[in-house]
Amino acid sequence: MRHRSLDMTAGPPLPRGYVFDNDSPHSARHHASLEAALDPLTLGHLREAGVTPGMACLEIGAGAGSVSRALLRLVSPGGTVTATDVKPGRIAPEPGLTVLTHDVVTDPLPDGAYDVVVARLVLQHLPERQAVLGRLVRALKPGGLLQVDEFDATHEPCLLAPSAEDARLYERFTTAKSALMRAGGGDPAWGRRAPAALREAGLTGLRIRPHVLLRAPGTPALGLQLHHLAHLAPRLLDHGFTPAELDRLGAMTRAPEFAAATGVLYSVQGRRPLRTPLSTTPSPEAT
Ligand SMILES: C[S@@+](CC[C@H](N)C(=O)[O-])C[C@H]1O[C@@H](n2cnc3c(N)ncnc32)[C@H](O)[C@@H]1O
Fold it and tell me: I need a labelling partner for 239 at 20 to 30 A (CA). Which of 127, 177, 205, 280 fits?
């Protein structure tokens, strides 16, 4: 049987940029799943890179701020963390943590200010990702560290499902999720392009770590997928899915015989060179 692909010409026009929304009722659990699934990886790599007390750090698109809070513990005493987001309302303030409403595409960033900059699951949503990357690099002090953690979400295979039809429905959903991201100007495959993008932005000493997580009932990685489904449900309904199919997706992914893999999360680190001029042009606010 041939399945329909997501029809982008049907339904209302899709907004550009981030396809999820921190103001949605699903957002708190979405961010809790991100924290449980990914913080051990993100923070492990920051620790290994030598993030230590006294450092000045920036996290862009900080979501609910779990990485920023953990980063603050790594750099205390004496360090600071600035956590920014277009919608930072879920980030609880605490001493040493500066929380800013900030659009990384359009709002200024200070030049050469940070020892560490972190961006997790933000750049792939932004059509302007390469220009933003250049701005993040310029925000680093010479020798400073940028860590970018991003998925290649274009291959999220179903490994076990209650039936072959369920497996096809799940894969149709993951394909549709990528199509919705692309329609908003995002790049669901950007994780695999991130190393080359960091090199193009002038960073050196690249370290690349790929990770795949299991999505099985009770795992935070499946929780993340279920929150993607909840966030995207209205758009999936507008673009060819039926309410019964969305209900079935929710039910079968909670069945004990369900298992899938995430796409590959690429955690990529690079450093701003100490002396070599960057290949990118200076930002207006730095001139
Ligand atoms: C998938 S969430 C990731 C949150 C957090 N980095 C994490 O991994 O737990 C993406 C975040 O990027 C933020 N975001 C989207 N577009 C942005 C922009 N132009 N500038 C700053 N933040 C943005 C969203 O509001 C959201 O909090």
Answer: 127
Average pLDDT over residues 124-148: 97
pTM for the predicted model, two decimal places? 0.91
Helix intervals (H) in the chain: 27-48, 66-75, 129-139, 164-183, 190-200, 220-238, 243-253
Strand extents, DSSP E, 61-194: 80-85, 97-101, 114-120, 140-152, 158-160
Establish whether residue 87 lines the binding site of ligand 1, counting it when its CB lies within 6 angstroms of any ligand atom: yes
pLDDT band at 25 (very low <50, low <70, confident <90, very high): confident
Mean pLDDT, rounded, for 119-128: 96
To the nearest 10°, report the CA torsion of 116, 117, 121, 124.
-130
What is d(CA 241, CA 189) in angstroms, rounded to the nearest whole number?
Answer: 23
- Residue 209's domain spans which residues? 27-272
CATH number of domain containing 56: 3.40.50.150
| Ligand 1: residue whose CA is nearest its atom 14 | 61
Contact 192, 271 (CB under 8 A): no
Whether residue 286 lies inside any domain: the answer is no
Number of structural domains the chain divides into: 1
Q: Percentage of residues in the chain with pLDDT exceeding 90?
A: 83
Does residue 85's CB lie within 6 angstroms of at least one atom of ligand 1?
Answer: yes
Compute φ and ψ for 157, nearest 5 degrees. -70, 145
Q: Which residues pair with 59 in a beta bridge?
A: 83, 118
- Residue from 59, 86, 228, 267 to probe ligand 1 pocket by mutation (most atoms less than 8 Å from CB): 86
Task: Indicate whether 16 belongs to any domain.
Answer: no
Distance CA 201, CA 221 (A): 31
Does the C-beta of 105 come closer than 6 Å to ligand 1?
yes
131 lines ligand 1 (CB under 6 A): no
